[in-house]
C-alpha cells in the first residue's frame, strides 16, 4: 500500500505540473483588448487613453519622419500623402469607439501592435483597400495583399499618384 501511495502522489504531481504548464501557455496566448475613443496619430497609428497602438501588417505614408513629410505627386502637384492617409483614417473613425486586438509583443518603438475595428470592420483592411496604406509583407504574411491589389487596379487613394512605399521612404531618409 505504501508503494501505491507513492505512485499515486507521483501521478497526481505530474498531472498538476502539466495542467499548470498548459494553463500558462493558453493564458499567454489570450488577446488583449483595448477599446475607447481614439486620437489618430498618423495613417497607421492611434492612441486610446495612454496607449499608442500601431496597426500591424500595414504601413501608411509618413506624416513626419526625422523632420520630413512624405510627399506624393498627382499631376505634378505635391501632396502630403502622410496627411492624406491620416485624414482618411480620421474620417473613417468619425469619433466612434475603436476596439483593438493587441498582439503579445510590442514593436521596436515599444508601441502596442494590433488590428483595430469600428463596428467589426477592420481599419487596416479599409485603409489598404482604399489605397491609403499598404500591405507590409515583411510583417503581414500578405494578409492585405488582395485589398492592395483591388486599390491598385482601381487607382484608389495613393495608387492614383506617384509615390514611394513608406518603408523605402524611411530607408532613403
Summarize the structure.
The protein has 173 residues and is α+β, with helices and mostly antiparallel strands. It has helices at 2-28, 81-93, 123-129, 137-140, 145-153, 166-172, and strands at residues 32-36, 38-42, 45-48, 51-55, 58-59, 71-74, 77-80, 98-102, 112-118, 121-122, 134-135. A hairpin with a 2-residue loop joins strand 3 (45-48) and strand 4 (51-55).
List the helices and strands and how they pair.
Elements: H1 2-28, E1 32-36, E2 38-42, E3 45-48, E4 51-55, E5 58-59, E6 71-74, E7 77-80, H2 81-93, E8 98-102, E9 112-118, E10 121-122, H3 123-129, E11 134-135, H4 137-140, H5 145-153, H6 166-172
Parallel strand pairs: 4-9
Antiparallel strand pairs: 1-8, 2-3, 3-4, 5-11, 6-7, 8-9, 9-10
Helix pairs in contact: 3-5
Distance between the termini: 76 Å
What CATH architecture would you give? Beta Barrel
What is the CA-atom radius of gyration, in angstroms? Answer: 22 Å
**How many strand elements?**
11
Return the domain count: 1
- Detail the poorly predicted runs: none
Amino acid at each position: 500500500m505504501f508503494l501505491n501511495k507513492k505512485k499515486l502522489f507521483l501521478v497526481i504531481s505530474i498531472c498538476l505540473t502539466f495542467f499548470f504548464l498548459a494553463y500558462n501557455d493558453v493564458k499567454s496566448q489570450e488577446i488583449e483588448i483595448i477599446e475607447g475613443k481614439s486620437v489618430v496619430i498618423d495613417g497607421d497609428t492611434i492612441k486610446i487613453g495612454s496607449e499608442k497602438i500601431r496597426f500591424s501588417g500595414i504601413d501608411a505614408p509618413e506624416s513626419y519622419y526625422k523632420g520630413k513629410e512624405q510627399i506624393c505627386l498627382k499631376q505634378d502637384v505635391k501632396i502630403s500623402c502622410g496627411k492624406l492617409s491620416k485624414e482618411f483614417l480620421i474620417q473613417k473613425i468619425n469619433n466612434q469607439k475603436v476596439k483593438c486586438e493587441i498582439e503579445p509583443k510590442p514593436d521596436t518603438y515599444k508601441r502596442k501592435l494590433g488590428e483595430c475595428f469600428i463596428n467589426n470592420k477592420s481599419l487596416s483592411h479599409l485603409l489598404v483597400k482604399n489605397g491609403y496604406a499598404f500591405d507590409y509583407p515583411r510583417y503581414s504574411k500578405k494578409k492585405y495583399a488582395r485589398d492592395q491589389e483591388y486599390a491598385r487596379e482601381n487607382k484608389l487613394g495613393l495608387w492614383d499618384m506617384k509615390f514611394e512605399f513608406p518603408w523605402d521612404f524611411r530607408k532613403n531618409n
